[in-house]
Amino acid sequence: MAGKGQRDHVILGNDQTGERIYLTSKNRRNTPDRLVLKKYSPKLHKVVEFKEVK
Question: Which terms does the record give in the GO molecular function aspect?
């Protein structure tokens, strides 16, 4: 049986609107700090920074 992998599922949230609409995965060995990605916000109708919540 395979062991637990290095990738974790993380939820991305926006501080301005409180949205938590993106789910992605990251390698916890390569990126131990919180993940920040620019994604589209449907409420603001523009691309903003979404930060790791979980």
Answer: structural constituent of ribosome
